[in-house]
Design goal:
Elements lengths: L7 H16 L8 E6 L2 E6 L2 H9 L3 E2 L10 H14 L10 H9 L5 H5 L2 H16 L5 E2 H6 L1 H11 L6 H13 L7 H25 L4 H7 L9 H31 L2 H9 L4 H12 L6 E5 L3 E3 L2 E3 L4 E4 L1 H4 L34 H18 L4 E2 L8 E3 L3 E3 L3 E3 L2
Parallel strand pairs: 2-8
Antiparallel strand pairs: 1-2, 3-5, 4-12, 5-8, 6-7, 9-12, 10-11
Helix pairs in contact: 3-10, 6-8, 6-16, 8-12, 9-10, 9-12, 10-11, 10-12, 12-14, 12-16, 14-16
């Protein structure tokens, strides 16, 4: 990670101040300088055009700073995350990012992802059968939205299904570190356990060869290059985090959106052909990447009528950009018939999510099967009682429903 005169205490101070600062911005507007600490400026971009310009700019690096000498729970949490996924594509710029993505992209081909549909449909049916045997309220987050993607990820990685509860703890640790700093030491310990398990799993997959995703990644070769063990560990950790947590949240938030917009629920139930476009609309309307993404600026960046100086930190307000009326008509309205393809729910540019097709497929199957199986499904509590957790991702703590 890059370092400047911007010190450890200032990194922590900036991270802790960003959330409250963003909360007061309620609509897309021109680039805004939030503050300057230790000679480093913090900017926020919220218009769609500005956010896409930032995410496509070569001056915008994903190598955001972490403390070199961590102090306190925030510093330790940042170091734990950096140690686990710092070598993944999520935290790399070209040419390292280009090399690694070229090695990995074959494992996520459209053909391979689409071939997973029958198995995903089978998993969804099994989970819905279990829910149908229940009486009283059901928490769709814990009992459905979490269960489907974690089973898919376990099978993709060739990990025992018995490990899925551990995967849940590890994934939760990554997303809860900054929302629950009092328990940061526990989360850091879980992430260390995760790293150790994945290192052992990579060694096994090296010996077994191709067969599952991790085995295929171990065997892949492009121009005589392979993924290193450290890169495979980082990729597996990223799959557990991004491939599971974001999909869980897409299923849960998408289902909540439908339950609170009964006209759209009925339309989607009677028009299965709209399921694919509905996934795009869910990602735009209330997606997991919310409120946005961090970048650091390596050279002066002209954007939105201003010049953001080198050395600045910039926050890309994805959720607000997805509600920009310059791109989406009547943006605060959920419309499953909308062409929402320009949403930024999977990022933009060279870091566009490699697993986007898989996430949309899982969401389409999961939500489609759910509303088809339980046409009388409704919230078991008032909408205002549903609690959100925002820590890099937007997640529902629970989604209690009555199935019929």
């Amino acid at each position: 990670m890059s370092t400047t005169r911007y010190g450890d205490d200032q990194i922590v101070e900036s991270i802790q101040a960003l959330g409250p600062a963003l909360a007061r911005i309620t609509e897309p507007r021109p680039p805004e300088l939030l503050w300057e600490i230790g000679g480093r400026q913090q900017w926020v971009l919220t218009r769609h055009a500005d956010v896409t310009a930032l995410l496509a700019a070569p001056q915008a690096t994903v190598r955001v700073q972490v403390p070199t000498n961590p102090q306190g729970p925030v510093g330790e949490a940042l170091m734990a995350i950096a140690g686990l996924i710092g070598g993944s594509m999520l935290q790399l710029d070209p040419p390292e990012h280009t090399r690694q993505r070229k090695l990995v992209v074959r494992a996520f081909s459209a053909r391979r992802v689409d071939a997973l549909r029958p198995r995903i449909e089978q998993i969804a049916a099994e989970l819905l059968d279990e829910l149908a045997r229940r009486s009283g309220p059901v928490d769709l987050v814990a009992e459905y939205a979490f269960q489907l993607p974690i089973r898919v990820i376990c099978e993709l990685l060739g990990a025992p299904v018995a490990r899925r509860e551990l995967f849940r703890e590890w994934s939760h640790a990554m997303t809860s570190l900054f929302a629950d700093l009092a328990n940061a030491p526990t989360y850091v310990g879980l992430l260390n356990d995760m790293a150790e398990y994945l290192r052992e799993l990579v060694v096994v997959k090296r010996g077994e060869g191709a067969g599952d995703l991790l085995g295929d990644l171990a065997a892949v070769e492009v121009d005589g290059q392979h993924l290193t063990d450290a890169e495979m560990v980082a990729m597996a950790a990223l799959l557990i985090f991004a491939g599971h947590e974001t999909t869980t949240n897409l299923i849960a938030l998408g289902t909540r959106a439908l339950l609170t917009h009964p006209d759209q629920l009925e339309l989607l139930r009677t028009r299965p052909d709209l399921r694919n476009s509905a996934m795009e609309e869910f990602l735009r309307f209330d997606g997991p990447i919310n409120p946005g993404l961090n970048r650091a600026i390596t050279a002066d960046l002209p954007v939105g009528g201003v010049v953001i100086p080198a050395g600045s930190a910039v926050y890309a307000g994805v959720s607000l950009a997805n509600r920009d009326p310059a791109v989406f008509a009547d943006p605060d309205r959920l419309d499953v018939t909308r062409d929402a393809g320009k949403h930024l729910g999977f990022g933009y540019g060279i870091h566009f999510c490699l697993g986007a097709r898989l996430a949309k497929l899982e969401g389409e199957v999961a939500i489609g099967a759910l509303i088809e199986r339980f046409p009388g499904m409704r919230l078991a509590v008032p909408e205002e009682e549903l609690k959100l957790r925002i820590s890099g991702l937007r997640a529902l703590e629970a989604l209690p429903v009555l199935l019929g």
